[in-house]
Amino acid sequence: MGDVFKAIADPTRREILLMLTDEASSIGQIAENFNMSRPAIAKHVKVLQNARLLEIEPDHADGRQRNCIAQLEALKEVEEYLSTLEKFWKAKFNGLETYLSKKNGK
Amino acid sequence: MRDSIKFTRVYHFPIEDVWKAISNKASMSEWLMPCNIEPVVGHKFQFKTKPFPGFNGTIDCQVLEVIENELLSFSWSGGPLKQTKVSFRLEEAGCKTVLHFEHSGFKGVLNQLIVKKILSNGWKTKILPILLQKHLEENGGRI
User: Fold this and answer.
1) What is the complex's ipTM, to 2 decimals?
2) Is A79 part of the contact surface with chain B (CB cutoff 8 Å)?
3) What is the pLDDT along chain A (106 residues), one digit of tens a residue?
4) Of A18, A64, B109, B116, which is least surrounded by CB within 10 A?
5) Set of chain A residues whose Cβ sits within 8 Å of the Cβ of B121
6) Which residues on adjacent β-strands are paired with residue B62?
């Protein structure tokens, strides 16, 4: 879960992800588009890959070329985190009534 | 789409009792989580809870607003959340107390959810990345 947040916290990685949602691209193509070095892009791609936000697969037409494909299902974890947080708060505030009863003897 | 967690609870206790429960270190540590809160604007404190992978168990907070028997708010940074805001607002209702709770500041995170929602709806035209780009430029960069 932390990996997804860390991955999307960086503006360059968000832009890479947006570019890839439009069209699968190789690291070289991304580097060209962002005017950055291949190793720098490869590093960002690695972080996105570790967060399961993208997958790398061989190109259909040219098997030697490897494409980065956006995989946005992992963003679900963010949604799930917020719903867990909401449950946490609700449970605590339901427990506050019990605490007040105990403390103030009712 | 919501950008905060919000709800209201009614407690059958006078407002002073509820205020003490939400602003006193010992009380908060008992019903919520171990912490060293003081109801003083600017006071920095931490909640300590059980760590799990991706979360070291510490939440860093700073008191933002204090109006005795009425309002307490503090910043909340922990796990994936950076600089979000938690607030407790109290309201007297006869011999009962109404508590309005809000945890806000998820905007940056929600931008990403919007991206996902639109994409999952299959609304995937050439125009989409341009609109999203604009949206992220206006609202992004603050996660």
Assistant:
1) 0.72
2) yes
3) 447 777 877 878 888 887 887 788 999 999 999 999 999 999 999 999 998 888 898 888 888 889 998 887 766 666 777 888 899 999 999 999 999 999 887 5
4) A64
5) none
6) B44, B75
